[in-house]
Design brief:
By secondary structure, the protein is an all-alpha fold. It has 2 domains: 1-39; 47-117. It is 92% helix and 0% strand.
């Protein structure tokens, strides 16, 4: 019969074993890479520096493109908002004119009713 406590210790030992295995494997790989490197440390550093510069330039381009897309989206949204505002303004003006016509018609009808009495 396995108790919960024994099962927990078994899982902890497994996790610890995996972690230690990854650590040892990573260190072994790093040492092997350094020992079997096809170029000197100086050349490796220069290569890393060049790749870093390339990565920086590439990242800069990506950020510029993203900013251009954001600006284009912002401008499109602004124009859409302005168009909608103009449309609503015209609808409001038409509604005001319509209501003024109703009020004017009602006033004329009231005036006729008063004159007819």
């Amino acid at each position: 019969m396995i108790h919960d406590n024994q099962e927990l210790r078994y899982h902890n030992n497994n996790a610890l074993g995996v972690f230690v295995g990854l650590l040892v494997g990573g260190l072994a790989g790093a040492v092997t890479m350094l020992l079997l490197a096809p170029q000197s440390g100086r050349d490796t550093r220069i290569q890393i520096q060049k790749k870093g510069i390339e990565l920086r330039d590439h990242t800069t381009e990506i950020v510029k493109d993203a900013m251009e897309q954001v600006r284009a989206s912002r401008d499109k949204l602004t124009m859409s908002g302005r168009d909608k505002l103009t449309e609503l303004k015209h609808q409001g003006q038409a509604l005001v004119v319509e209501q003024l016509d109703h009020v004017s018609d009602a006033a004329k009808a009231g005036k006729k009713a008063i004159e007819g009495s």
